[in-house]
Amino acid sequence: MALKNVTAVGIAAAGLLLAGAGHAAPIGDLRAAVKRADWPTVLKLAQPLAEQGEAEAENDLGDLYCGGNGVPPDYARAAVWYRKAAEQGFAPAMVGLGQLAENGHGVAKDAAEAARWYRKAAYAGSGDGALYLGLMHDDDGALTKDYAEAARWYRLAFQHGEPIGANNLGLLYSYGEGVRKDAAESARWYRKAADGGDADGAMNLAFAYEDGAGVPQDWGQAYAWMRKAAEHGKATAQNGLGYLYETGRGVTKDYKAAFAWYAEAADSNNLAAVDNLARMYRFGRGTKPDLEQALMLYRGAAAAGDADAQYSLGDLYYRGRDVKQNYAEALKWCRKAADQNNADAETTLGVMYEDGKGVAADAGAALHWYRKGAENGSSEAEYDLGLLYAAGKGVAQDFAQAAKWYRKAADSDDPDGLAALGRLYVDGKGVGRDAVAAYMYLSIALRSYANDDENRAAAAADLDTVAEKMTDAEIARARKKAADWKPVDA
Fold first, then answer.
1. I need a surface site. Which of 45, 172, 354, 391 has the fewest CB within 10 A?
2. Number of H-type helices and E-type strands within the chain
3. What are the pLDDT digits (tens) for 385-403?
């Protein structure tokens, strides 16, 4: 859920950039000094104004002491100046006091006191106050978790001009927490946030377009919004933009651009980007092939806990590609990734247990790992699980269960799942005998086996056998069904 992307007292800029009504010339000079981050001048101008009771200048001094800008950091002195300004109704100072109380900086740590100041600030028109109060009720917040309350304050934050409130409200609608689950409403709030300049909102809107969640799937729109977020320095979006360039979705495929965006995200220690950058080095995409660099990146990201990198490293050792085959290392890294529910790692563990590679052969353990992989969305695991049920391996033979898992794999356009399901329809095992369905699934598998000559030939042979017993009308109907077929959620 929403995360607090602020420093201990991250609202300094909000207070420092407001303009006051009195002391026009000095305040104007003070605002200009703040804008250019000339902290000695800010201190020089703010001190006398604050001593005269100018709330804005009092808040400025609070910000200086809080951030250690031009003065040694001193949270206690920051609290004194924030309180003076807050008692005059200056909302940014109220937020400052709330942040100090929430984090226990310069004052006793007190969530209730923090919430009191945030609430006063919100009612005084502060978007920050409303936002931080929402965060206190959200995941990992300092108050009792209450998504409905979080949603109320996020909405008010946006009404007071804080676009992050709209993004966080979009997240709540996405998960159905505190509000009804509504992908379209979620995307609408992401757009409001993005239009307000929030990078997270732009990135989440891009993901919505990628997934077709609440909006029609549109890779061009995904690219446009992902780029906006990436150009704002959002590392996750930079990694996402690299993926779009690498795959040519929404933009012309460009490995050099993909490499550059992955590298920028990796510089911000985005572990997914490190994993992707390693792959680019490994296969020489957008750069010269450099296996040593690839392995260094994989190992670094894997050691830091990135599940994808752990799987990538395990897969290298399992297959013996570019490194000496080592099943013990493969098992170690795939287990680490599987502990984080990485579906590919779970599937590989299933294969290792089924085939007895690096471990004693154990069909029951294979079944366990295939099931976990299937539950986490691996079409390969779904197909393999179907095979175990069809063969009665590690489980009682059950063609209906085999058909169920083959169908799940087929729904993801997995050619093995498509072909296996087609063959069940030929034999009437686990499903009713149906030549039209058999022909349809085998013909779809045939086109999905575009780069697999051996399996393509086998599917073609089975298709010919089925066709020999069909009428022209049945073949025409099967071909129409195959032409109209689309993977689930495509």
1. 391
2. 27, 0
3. 999 999 999 999 999 999 9
